[in-house]
Amino acid sequence: MGAAAKLLRGNKINRSRAGDLLLFLFLAALGYFMALPLVFVISNAFKPINEILQFPPKFLVRNPSLNNFTDLYNLMSGTWVPFTRYMFNTFFIAFVGTAGHVIIASLAAYPLAKRKFPGVSVLFTIVVLSLMFSGTVTQVTNYMTMSWFGMIDTYWAVIIPAIGSSLGLYLMKQFMEQIPDALLEAAQIDGCSEYRIFWRIVMPVVKPAWLTLIIFSFQGLWGAGGAAGSMYIYSEQLKTIDYALGQILAGGIIRTGPSMAATLLMISVPIIIFVITQSNVLQTMSTSGMKD
Amino acid sequence: MSMIPLSRKPGELVQREPRPSVWAKKMSEVKQNKHMYVMIAPYFMIFFIFTVLPVFLSLTVSFTNFNMLEFPDWVGWQNYARLFIRDDIFLLAVKNTIYFAAITGPISYIVCFVLAWVINELSPKVRAVATLIFYAPVLSGNAFIVWTLLFSGDSYGYINAFLLKFRLIAEPILWLKDPQYIMAIIIIVQLWLSLGTSFLAFIAGLQSMDKTLFEAGAIDGIRNRWQELWFITLPAMRPQLMFGAVIQITSSFAVAEVATTLAGFPSVQYAGHTIVTHLMDYGNIRFEMGYASSIATVLFGIMLGSNLLVQKLLKKVGE
């Protein structure tokens, strides 16, 4: 018991065994609910067709096969718009949007966190207020603005608003606040310009924060073809993978296998990024609190 | 200025410069910090055009009749009158949205915190795995589409098959077509998707807590983990709790994608209709921009109002 308990809870004071058990049961029940749909995706991605059509349906796969992945490949080669085009669209939107957001939001976060100048507190208050309403409030008027700018039915309709996302700026600013002023002053005395300080000193120190911005922005844009994309992008050749997946799934039960295979491939990308960056993300989130 | 020279001896030079006005002082500060403005300019240009301006624009457009083609007509409060008096479906959408938010908001917030707190009890390796499992649904984005297979209306649907097997039901239920169940299912899926940013913020906040606080607490007579939670952890976590509240409240009022994907658009008898789907109906399908803007303005008011109210309440905690 001793070793197992230590594995489970580490070294903490004031802990009873009954409480441990209770909390463990809570965790297990909730974990089951959370994991079930994803287990379903994995399981169905490897089910051969006879198991998918089996009645009554079994939840877990018996004889895993890779047929769904080859079927998916065949389905993809038969689409009117080449599937590589959907892939390019998704990658382009996710990479350009994420890179733009990380660079531009960090650039703005540094003065907000570390410098005093007229307007700085008003600007940050507006950013905090903007966390209090979602993009759905602005989508109608954004449609009008974008049509005036000629952005409708281009990648930029999805990318540009994502670059200006306020959560990223907020997290970055909160994290940058803990950089010691002495570090920046030393650089100033050495004659570094503000841009140099930003690139050479601030950015390396806030690596956890920009990794966090990368995962948040990427995960939003990777699936964003769905929400923002369907609203602003009409052309078939500009649509993203998840739109194509919706089309595959619309083929009914016979397409369940390939579409689950595709879903598995899609979700594994952000999950892998998160696994790699998890400790950095948590480090960043520890400064996310709102001060009075 | 004209009074000063009276006391001046002839021939003395005026060394004092005129006192700079507040405005001039501000301008010189702005000049000194011009690099700062250059650095924030790209972000704030995008932010103002796509986040701040739309709020004011939609407030203005909401008093007009505008279809994107003709010049807008000023109609005064007509859109709002139509919303609250004649549009029964909007009132239903408001009712549904408040119902969703009142359930998913508090539940998801409490679950986020309790779960983060339980996970924090685990050793670092187990903690990392548990965090991944609970955060995975948010990471996997549109994978919530699998719920349509689980709740599929025929006997191939997994929930139906399961209930049929144990003879809990006699024939398959059309889960996503029956107004009786639509709301509950959307709530379940929304809760499944709700362990997001605030969950991570809570875990991180708990991990970075000052460990000596607990030791001091134990000396002061704290006997068990529940007392520790109430007297030490919660007060110390207030900034994270406020941040988490903002994220959860905002997302719980924005239910739309899950509703339209699962229950269709429009859903049967509008059972899964929310303010946001109503907005999409008028803004993106009918192009009645004036009317859609009045819906957006109402939604903005509800979101901001409830957020500010909860912030006020949370500030009182522990005072």
TrEMBL record, chain A:
Keyword check for Transmembrane: yes
Keyword match rRNA-binding: no
Family annotation (Pfam families): BPD_transp_1
Annotated InterPro entries: MetI-like, MetI-like_sf
Localization annotation: Cell membrane
Membrane-spanning intervals of the chain: 21-46, 86-110, 117-134, 154-172, 209-233, 253-276
Keyword tags: Cell membrane, Membrane, Transmembrane, Transmembrane helix, Transport
Membrane topology designation: Multi-pass membrane protein
Coiled-coil annotated spans: none
CDD domains to which the protein is assigned, alphabetical: TM_PBP2
Protein known as: Carbohydrate ABC transporter permease
Sequence ranges assigned to domain ABC transmembrane type-1 in this UniProt record: 87-277
Family the entry assigns: Belongs to the binding-protein-dependent transport system permease family.
UniProtKB/TrEMBL annotation, chain B:
Keyword terms: Cell membrane, Membrane, Transmembrane, Transmembrane helix, Transport
InterPro entries: ABC_transporter_permease, MetI-like, MetI-like_sf
The organism's place on the tree of life at top rank: Bacteria
Cellular localisation: Cell membrane
Pfam families: BPD_transp_1
Protein family per UniProt: Belongs to the binding-protein-dependent transport system permease family.
UniProt-recorded name of the protein: Carbohydrate ABC transporter permease
